[in-house]
Structures are given as structure tokens and as C-alpha cells.
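Sequence and fold
=================
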Amino acid sequence: MTGFEQLPLGERPAGRWSLTADWVVVDTPAGRRLAPQGEVVIENDRVIHAGGRFEGEVAARHHMGAALIAPGFVDLDALADLDTTLLAFDNHPGERKGRVWPRSYVGRGPYEMYTPEDLVFQKRFAFGQLLLNGITSAAPIASLFYREWGETVAEFDAAAQTAQDLGLRVWLGPAYRSGGMIVEAEGHLTAAFDEARGLAGLDDAIAFAERWHGDPLISPMLAPDRVETCTETLLRRTMAAADDLGCPVRLHMAQGRMELDTVIRLHGMTAPAWLATLGCLGPRLLAPHATVATDDDLALYAANGVTVVHCPLVSGRHGGALRSFARLRRMGIRVAMGTDTAPPDMVLNMAAGMMLCRVVDGDIAACRSEDFFDAATVAGAAALGRDDIGVLRPGAKADIAVFDMADIHMAPRIDPIQTLILGATGRITRATIVDGRLSMRNGEVAGIDMVAARAAAQAQFDALVARYPERTLGHPPVSEIFPPSFPLLNGARHAT
């Protein structure tokens, strides 16, 4: 490896420079190809060559050896806070474990569980995690369970600055909603709405989008929260604003039983069917997770150009699965990828997605590794209206991930894409380059000490868990909300 370790982290190398490796993923007019002993040449923020040996002049040539050089991943549901869904997988039902606001909590608030400084830190830590996993473009997502209502413009201004500092391409917009679910004292769920508050949140999101439009790394996105928290007026105005702004809209729907039951109770139909009656289905819409979508729902997605954001790891942890990745693609539905949980490991998500697809279809031939690799790169880019990210070709943005194909835990090695997805995790990401800038190398992220940040994140998470009784039905102690997997020895206190 010639001089690569000496390149300044967080900066663009001077002049025209190149990376060579045993394998390079190359996008050609005839389709995606693998280039053995390939080379990628970068100048400023662009790729000027991807393929075999470059015959022109370069200021420096860095040999990565037994590595795979590939387009960076596009994550359309990228975790941007501390992942409290980890608490939910073995502790349920959610409405009795602090995943739904009890009426008693709403009566005292609701209120912010984090300080403004906590929220700024969480975005910084999360963006660093994404870069560690070879993710170069992200549409962040965070939970509103722990917020007073929605996200704020101030925290997203800080998030935009963080993305610039660390070197991550992002689609940003503060989440807003018109309502939320409440669990009553006797345990049943009701939906409560404050439409004026939701519309004010939309106005703030539009102002944020207009202010950041045109930045090289920051693009606007409108992010109404979960579909059951939105009213007709909020959704109609959101889609109209997205058309004016030329930006995507992400809306979680067809993702779980509580949502399905609530939307049917409120509107007499499933969420995709309801949005169709409102004229709110279209190519701008990014729709995680579709795991409870009906055949009719999927037909509506296909007819209206909706992109399904597939997050197989978090879905599988909840006992759900897309039915199925292969089937949706056959229907003509674009399927892109998201992580939506910790770790934000796109490689692990592709592996989980392949397994779930084959199990659901009962067919080992239902999908292949390259199908998921394309979903995690070029399909996500297309969903965002971009053809210059998620690809490696002349003229593309220099958004690149380098994977270690000689990792000692990953043997024997076969085809590099198959080996990456079937035999690895994102932990073999050696380097992440965004917009021609070296944002991550060998576990070090520009602009943040990830070791210290990990300790700070754990302290924040522990403090949140300690406050869970405030926002849990009946206000039981933490030990009852989240009992240990095995009884603690001699009455010792539980440690996270």
C-alpha cells in the first residue's frame, strides 16, 4: 500500500490520484462489471477512470492489494440516534415496555428525554458509524418516542454541519407529525392528533429544505413520521411541497401490526390504499418497510413508482420479512436498502436480506448477491434521483468504499461480491471516501474520536434507560421493564 496510510484524514488528496486493488466494481454502458487488478482514478470530487490500468499521469497511485474497491453504499433509512429498538426485541409487548406513550406521561408532558447537546452528539456518533460501514450517502432516521413532539430545525442545522465536518453525503429534514399513539390506563391503544402542530412542523421542514438546497453534501428531504401519525392534510401538503422543492419524501408504512390496525380503524383501508385515494403515492415516495403490505398494496406501489426501502435486519429481529425482495423486483418495484438499527451494517443487512428472501420464497435461486449489492448502491441512488452516486464510472462522484478481502475471518475467498455478502460484515471496511475526501480509514473517522464517542453514547443510553419508568404504562421499575436474559447472580445489579 503506497502512501495511503499517510494521506491526511478528512481531506481530498492533491491532484489526480488513484487506488488499485485485486478487484474493482466498474459501471459501464453495458452494465456492471468486475475488473481484476483494477484501478480507480480520482480528481477533486469526481471519478475520472474506473476499470483496468490507467495510462495517464497521476500524482500518486495507492495499491490496496487484496481488496475490493466499490461504490459506497446508499442507506435510505440510516439510524441517527441511539438504537432503542434493541430494547424491544426481547421485551414486549411494546405498549407495556415504554414503546408507546402512556396517558399518564402525556398528562405530564410529553417532554424531551435528551438535551439539545445530546441530540447533536447522537447525529455525530451515528454519522461516524455509517462511515465505518462503507455508507457514503444516507437519509437519517431517528425515533420520536423520546421527543416532546417532532425534530427541530436547530438540531438539523447542526446535523448538516456535522455531515460537512465528517464528510458524509446526506438527505436531511426534521421529522414532523400530527399525532401519535397513546396507551390508556387499562391497556388499549388510541390515536391522538394535533394537526396544527404537524403543519407547523412541515413549515419548519420546508424552511430548512430551502435554506440547505444546493449544498454539495446536504440535500433536502421531507420526513413525515409514521403513517398512523399523519393526517390527510399533512400528507397532501407534504407531497405538494416535495414537488415544489424537487426532493424525496420518506414515510414509514405497511411496517407493522399496530400501524395496520390503526390505519384500518381510522380510514377503513391499509396505508398504501389510503395514500392512493389522496393522490400521495408517487416516485418521490420512499416507503420503509412493506413487511405487512398486501398484494393490492404492492400493486399500488408498482403502479405509482414508489420505492420500498428494505431493512431486513431490523425487520427480521421483529419477526417480519419482505414478501419478498425477489417478488417485488419482478413486479417492477424499485427496492433500495436501509439499515435502521445498530449496527448500521449494510453488509450484514444484505446477508440477512438474501437469507430472508430465500426462506420466504423457499427457493435458493430466488436472489443472488449482486441483486442486493445493486439494491444497496445504484437502486438507492435512483430513488434519490441521482445517477452519479452508487456507481463507479467516469463522471461519477468519488463516493467509494474499500473492503479488505484478506480478512482472516473470511476464508476461503471466492467471487468478491459473494464473499463480501456471504462471509463478512461491514467491519472489513478499510476506507470510505466521500466527494473525493478520505472520511474514514482503518476505523478512524475524520473529526471524531469514535472510541471516546462510544463511551459517551453508552452513558447517554444508560441515562435514558434509567428514565424509562417515567414513560412506561404503570411506571414499573427498569428491572421489570427490561429483565436480564438470565437471573443475576447473588442479587447483583444489572449492568448494560
Observations:
- The mean pLDDT is 96.
- The longest strand covers residues 16-28.
- Residues 56 and 364 are 44 Å apart (CA to CA).
